[in-house]
Write a sequence for this structure.
């Protein structure tokens, strides 16, 4: 196997550093998932296996009550798929950056991608901070630190489930970290309109089953951002002020 070049190693380490400010939120979210799995009635070995194989906090939390209640397998699978439909949108957004990568690497990117890693990647892409051809190594560094943090915190939550109350609201710190990550990117009209419309629709559709409100909000946000961008491009430029 060809060893990685110094440029790729540097890009990998740069990605590891870039995700550090968000790791506290990811860790808190992971611990909540670990605690919830055990307190929801899942045996410790199954909880550990679910954390390692599923690696999707919202899907884990949505599917857990169904597993404990003995729901049919197709209901559990459908719930997980619907909950994670937003990752289809994420994948479409990442495609231009990784379309030249082999299928096995694109599959790995899809597995290790989370809300945190996607938001960070798109923010760096928008700001022109991504390393050119080594962006896959940069993203691997981001995903590695996020995955390790998630698994360590989830396993900690599984082991410490008897001592950590579920009403601490730790999952809210994960949401705050995600907001802090996405916030600096909302500097254009399409981004702002997409965020506002997506948030409003997600709130209005909160009570839809299987967390479909998240998906509806994502679709509405994309539509709003696309329409705003098209409107901007059709609008004539403002006349220059005379001296």
């Amino acid at each position: 196997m060809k060893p990685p070049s110094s440029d790729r190693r540097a890009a990998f380490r740069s990605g590891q550093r870039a995700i550090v400010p968000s790791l506290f939120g990811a860790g808190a979210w992971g611990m909540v998932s670990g605690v919830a799995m055990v307190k929801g009635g899942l045996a410790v070995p199954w909880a550990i296996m679910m954390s390692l194989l599923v690696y999707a906090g919202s899907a884990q939390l949505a599917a857990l009550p169904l597993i404990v209640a003995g729901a049919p397998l197709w209901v559990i699978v459908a719930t997980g798929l619907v909950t994670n439909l937003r990752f289809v949108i994420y994948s479409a957004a990442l495609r231009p950056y990784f379309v030249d990568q082999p299928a096995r690497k694109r599959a790995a990117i899809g597995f290790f991608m989370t809300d945190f890693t996607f938001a960070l990647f798109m923010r760096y892409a928008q700001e022109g901070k991504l390393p050119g051809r080594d962006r896959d190594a940069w993203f691997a560094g981001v995903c590695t630190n996020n995955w390790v943090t998630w698994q360590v915190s989830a396993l900690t939550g599984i082991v410490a489930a008897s001592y950590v109350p579920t009403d601490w609201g730790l999952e809210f710190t994960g949401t705050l970290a995600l907001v802090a990550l996405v916030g600096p990117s909302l500097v254009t009209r399409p981004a702002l309109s997409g965020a506002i419309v997506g948030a409003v629709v997600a709130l209005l559709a909160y009570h839809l089953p299987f967390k479909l409100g998240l998906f509806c909000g994502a679709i509405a946000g994309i539509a709003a951002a696309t329409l705003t961008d098209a409107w901007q491009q059709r609008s004539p430029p403002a006349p220059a002020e005379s001296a």
Q: What stands out?
A: The two ends are 64 Å apart (CA to CA). The mean pLDDT is 80. The first helix runs from residue 6 to 18. Residues 144 and 215 are 27 Å apart (CA to CA).
